[in-house]
Amino acid sequence: MKKHTASFAPERTAGNGPVTLSVEEALANTKLFPYWLDNPAEPPIEPELVGDVSADLLIVGGGFTGLWSAVQAKEQMPHLNVVLIEAGKVAHGASGRAGGIISTSVMHGLPNAVRVFPNDIDELERFGHKNLDGFEETLTRYGIDADVEWNGEMTVAVDPDHLDHLRGDYDLHKSHGHNVVLLNREDTLEQLNSPLFAGALWSRNRSGIVHPAKLAWGLKRAALQLGVRLYEKSPLVTVTDEGDTVFVKTPKGSVRAARVMFGSGTAKVGIPDINRRVMQVRDHVLATEPLTDEQLARIGWKNRQGIYDTRTQLNYFRLTKNNNIIFGGLVSYHFDGESNPYQDSRRETYHRLAQAFYRTFPQLSDVRFSHAWGGPIDYCSRGSVFAKRYLGGKAVFVAGYTGFGVAASRFGAFMGLNILFDRDSPERKLDVANQSPTYIPPEPFRWIGAKITFHAFDGADAEGGWKRAWINGLKRMGFPM
Question: Is 471 helix (H, G, I), strand (E, B) or coil?
């Protein structure tokens, strides 16, 4: 069994190298707000819904799923009267807080797709390729400048014991025609220099990085150009099934619609079954100040891939257009899926994430953090998007991306619309469109289970024991880890 080492906190040292900051110093002036949303490119807010309106299609939620639903609905059915309501501001929920790594898969990665839908994997792979083609075409068609870079994605092993796992993933991806390269330690360090990395799997095309808020704002502009009536600061208060229509109340208005698409993530919309199948966990993210050319040269990263590591409590990281490093991880859960926990507004919450950053890149010990934030992840038992009918078939709920929704949300919206309008489409013949994730235990068992699980994540790789046994038990029960 490996010995568990104490958390790393850099101390100031003398010498000719870069100054070494303490975690407290590095976070002293950090803005506790998402880096992506702190941007003058944010468009003006649309008016709140006031009064009563009607619609052929009501979309609830102004994140990626809702925006992709609005754009695709108007493209495919231009005659539709489409209304979108957003509780706050477009992109200010999960979509504007993501890491912004674009993945080819619509099922949270190829290994997860094989785990959940082994009989449909070839079709799901085709959907993934077609989805990214449509993603790229949409950005071109509407002139959406979202800082997209198609540099691939890379999984780095942080322990030699993890290399067998990477080899298995390499064989799996090769068998499905992916352009992947398995890198040894030396080749990995040429791509991105960290003393932790023992090897890597680089998927070299059809994936990359994007500015998630700019993507959402671009989709918002496209939806408005297509004639969607979009209302911000208009949260759903109640939803009522009226038989032929659905009636939705907001604080100052209402919408009566023939059909409703819920792209509302983990928000409670008055349909209890939804929140039995999806739960909110909180991810945490840091943005460094922009790296100088000299600082960037210390770590390389010449191909600028989006990166995931192989820790059980994984970290992910990518560069921005301005060479900030976005560094995320440290997942937590708050009772009843609290959407705005006070912990996210405390610098101390991000200390461990900053320590993980400096362990990964000790040569960047002089780099400070400009932004820190928490964001919701809509977790479900199958670890990938699902679409389910409600209200006698007049409504469809789409969610469950479990952290991989930046590109998969386009496919989720496409599948959801096909189900909602009962259109013949290839994915509707597959289990992905006809099976729902299993129930997640209610509170307080949900909170207790989540607390034990995240405690097991912290140290499972180094300590093993009951923590590894607990995680393996959850995997056997079908929950993605």
Answer: helix
Q: Could you tell me which residues come within 8 angstroms of residue 7 by beta carbon, excluding any fewer than 6 positions away?
A: 352, 355
Q: What is the pLDDT of residues 223-241, one digit of tens each?
A: 999 999 999 999 999 999 9
CB atoms within 10 A of CB 14: 7
* Helix or strand (DSSP H, E) at 174: helix 163-175
pLDDT of res. 5: 37
At residue 174, does pLDDT exceed 50?
yes
Strand-pairing partners, residue 53, are 255
Q: How many CB atoms lie within 10 A of CB 338?
A: 14
Q: Is the pLDDT of residue 244 over 50?
A: yes
Cα separation values, 216 from 47, 404, 452, Å? 18, 15, 35
Res. 463 pLDDT band, cuts 50 70 90: confident
Neighbour count for residue 13 (Cβ, 10 Å): 10
Structure letter (DSSP) for residue 216: H
Rounded Cα distance, 360 and 195, in Å: 7
Helix (H, G, I), strand (E, B) or coil at 208: strand
Please report where in the chains the tokens 């983990």 appear, as a residue. Answer: 266
Distance CA 311, CA 419 (A): 37
* Residue 481: pLDDT band with limits 50, 70, 90: low
* Nearest-angstrom CA–CA distance, 70 and 391: 20
* Weakest mean pLDDT among 12-26, 331-345, 346-360: 12-26
Cβ neighbours around 248 below 10 Å, total: 26
Task: Evaluate if residue 13 carries a pLDDT over 80.
Answer: no
Pair 289, 369: CB distance under 8 Å: yes
371: burial class by Cβ within 10 Å (0-12, 13-18, 19+)? buried
Cβ–Cβ < 8 Å for 238, 268: no
pLDDT tens digit string along 119-171? Answer: 999 999 999 999 999 999 999 999 999 999 999 999 999 999 999 999 999 99
pLDDT tier at 473 (50, 70, 90 boundaries)? confident
From CA 340, how far away is CA 317, in angstroms rounded? 24
Cβ atoms of 212 and 91 closer than 8 Å: yes
Radius of gyration of the chain (CA): 22
> Rounded to whole angstroms, how far apart are CA atoms 384 and 132?
16
Q: What is the mean pLDDT of the chain?
A: 94
For helices 405-420 and 64-76, angle between their N-to-C axes, nearest 10 degrees: 50
Taking the C-alpha atoms of residue 354 and residue 361, their distance in angstroms, rounded to an integer, is: 10
